[in-house]
């Protein structure tokens, strides 16, 4: 098991220019991380192949691994032409993943407004999502890259929907980036959901949330779950998710891959990411 962070955790520092992605890589190494996930479009872009090479080399010099390449995408499009264009674009992102030297890549599959995320709509969208994921996974296989869907974005977030997509895609190199906190967004209890899906995980995100029921109004900084409850990102170990029990499920399942902190709270991002990494490492070692 190797603990690191998603570059998303340092988004606020990347966005303001306090850090570059190369600075972030060095920061992770300096603060005890063993790997970093690269998430473009959040404070930096990877349109320049020279930057891709610089990221790979900086990680090598810093002595940490690049664990995963995670991109935004959606195969819910206006027409067939746009649908094929999106599949082709994601394949080009696979080329970038290969240039980075990674063997794991997460791509989104479907973004819809919360009011359009019914099970009926999911079933209607599923054939196109399956085909697109198959096409990308088959393309990635030439590089020995495993692609994955993360449980986020409401439409493909519940554990059963993620499993359905994986099973129907039916590719050995298509799995899930399992985010332990995101199940709460669709009102699914994290420990139970992690038990259901850890066997399909190529990558694990550890995320914590503060939780407030729907009959409260905590004010600015919170997001809603599908039932109207409230969530706010937390430093791992500070929130309301039973992180120790979640980690026990992961460890007992025999998972021994990358564990990535994904912090999205209101606290200062560097301190929050460091505390989160330290807490997860300590909890894991105590199990």
Automatic annotation (TrEMBL):
GO molecular function: isomerase activity
A Pfam family: AP_endonuc_2
Domain Xylose isomerase-like TIM barrel: 25-270
UniProt entry keywords in alphabetical sequence: Isomerase
Keyword Isomerase: yes
Name this polypeptide is given: Sugar phosphate isomerase/epimerase
Organism expressing this protein natively: Aquibacillus albus
